[in-house]
């Protein structure tokens, strides 16, 4: 049977769904209140830390469930998103860090292997909640060498989902060393580090239960062994696209799940009204057709990412492009058509959907977040995909 975005492809993926499904009724029940309050449901994440969910993508030899397939992570996020997409977006942070840290533990430099293995074990034990922080605001986040030989991290990151409960942050930063070209780096910074402040400033239009706050770094000390090295700033390598794909592609499941949830609400409303008009029938047919196309595109992109993530035998740059390009094709389609599907569902339901208390209102706001997710936003995706066409 061909893979389907509604079905895991591994025993570990099925185990993850078994652990998550008991949370779905509670998430649905609390979703409206958490949306109004812009509140991350910390009590549910505390339960997830105890029952093993937070170690889902940690290898079994490090104590985790051992989910390795990005397809299965996307399937799990899809189901969560239908209950509360903000929580799915927050949990994506932990799942993606498990996948990328597993790569570091297996293929990184000796120092990176030690650091990643230690964090993975903490994640599996429910002791570590790990966020990635990519987007700068006001200034570029930079690492510089301090007088004591340690690095100092200065800058500000925004839209860091799950940050209110995080114990560790993996930061995208520039590394400045005297007499050396500027490099990219990913320092791993514990929450208790002096100079680190997690702000309480989340007031997003959608994804309001994701806890996507800002983080400030004021000369935070970072030991050298906590810095994961990356490439030169002025000589970007397509090989790095592989890690960026692993970090983000599973989010596509969230936005497909939002579109599917909106579709189900529209169908239910239509059935309650009796025989629909021809215009409504047309919209429903188009909605289901677009959903089918999105599931096919996302499933294929995930399959390519899973296949190439395990194959290190070829050219690294070609591997990076081979993972990123299908991801961007699928993301481009999802960003456009998931929004369009939810919009059409509002049309089908009618004026009732244009009230704050209607569940479609939340879906309408949440689905818009996909276009801002890295990589890439619309303009950057156009640049990347057109460059591939013109290679």
TrEMBL record:
Its cofactor is FAD. Keywords: FAD, Flavoprotein, Oxidoreductase. Pfam families: Acyl-CoA_dh_1, Acyl-CoA_dh_M, Acyl-CoA_dh_N. Residues 249-370 form the Acyl-CoA dehydrogenase/oxidase C-terminal domain. Residues 139-220 form the Acyl-CoA oxidase/dehydrogenase middle domain. InterPro entries: Acyl-CoA_Oxase/DH_mid-dom, Acyl-CoA_Oxase/DH_mid-dom_sf, AcylCo_DH-like_C, AcylCo_DH/oxidase_C, AcylCoA_DH/ox_N, AcylCoA_DH/ox_N_sf, AcylCoA_DH/oxidase_NM_dom_sf. Belongs to the acyl-CoA dehydrogenase family. This is Acyl-CoA/acyl-ACP dehydrogenase. It comes from Nonomuraea rhodomycinica. The lineage of its organism: Bacteria, Bacillati, Actinomycetota, Actinomycetes, Streptosporangiales.
């Amino acid at each position: 049977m061909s893979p389907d975005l509604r079905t895991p492809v591994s025993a570990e993926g099925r185990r993850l769904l078994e652990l998550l499904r008991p949370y779905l009724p509670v998430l649905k029940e609390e979703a409206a209140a958490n949306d109004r309050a812009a509140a991350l449901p910390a009590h549910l994440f505390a339960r997830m830390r105890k029952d093993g969910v937070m170690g889902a993508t940690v290898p079994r030899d490090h104590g985790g469930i051992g989910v390795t397939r990005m397809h299965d992570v996307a399937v799990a996020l899809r189901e969560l998103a239908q209950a509360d997409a903000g929580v799915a977006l927050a949990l994506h942070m932990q799942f993606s860090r498990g996948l990328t840290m597993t790569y570091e533990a297996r293929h990184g430099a000796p120092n990176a292997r030690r650091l990643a293995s230690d964090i993975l074990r903490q994640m599996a034990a429910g002791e570590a909640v790990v966020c990635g922080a990519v987007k700068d605001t006001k200034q570029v986040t930079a690492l510089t060498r301090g007088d004591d030989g340690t690095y100092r991290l200065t800058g500000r990151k925004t839209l860091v989902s799950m940050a209110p409960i995080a114990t560790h942050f993996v930061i995208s930063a520039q590394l400045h060393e005297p007499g050396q070209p500027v490099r990219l780096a990913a320092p791993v910074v514990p929450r208790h580090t002096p100079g680190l402040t997690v702000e309480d400033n989340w007031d997003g239009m959608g994804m309001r239960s994701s806890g996507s706050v800002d983080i400030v770094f004021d000369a935070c000390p970072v030991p050298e062994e906590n810095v994961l090295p990356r490439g030169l700033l002025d000589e970007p390598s397509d090989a790095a696209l592989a890690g960026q794909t692993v970090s983000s592609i599973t989010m596509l499941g969230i936005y497909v799940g939002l579109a599917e949830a909106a579709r189900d609400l529209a169908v239910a409303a239509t059935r309650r009204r009796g025989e629909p008009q021809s215009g409504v029938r047309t919209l429903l047919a188009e909605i289901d057709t677009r959903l089918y196309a999105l599931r096919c595109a996302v499933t294929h992109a995930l399959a390519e990412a899973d296949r190439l993530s395990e194959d290190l035998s070829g050219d690294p740059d070609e591997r990076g492009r081979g993972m990123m390009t299908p991801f961007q094709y699928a993301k481009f389609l999802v960003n456009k058509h998931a929004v369009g599907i939810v919009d059409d569902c509002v049309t089908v339901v009618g004026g009732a959907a244009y009230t704050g208390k209607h569940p479609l209102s939340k879906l309408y706001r949440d689905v818009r977040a996909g276009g801002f997710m890295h990589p890439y936003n619309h303009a950057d995706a156009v640049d990347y995909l057109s460059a591939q066409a013109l290679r």
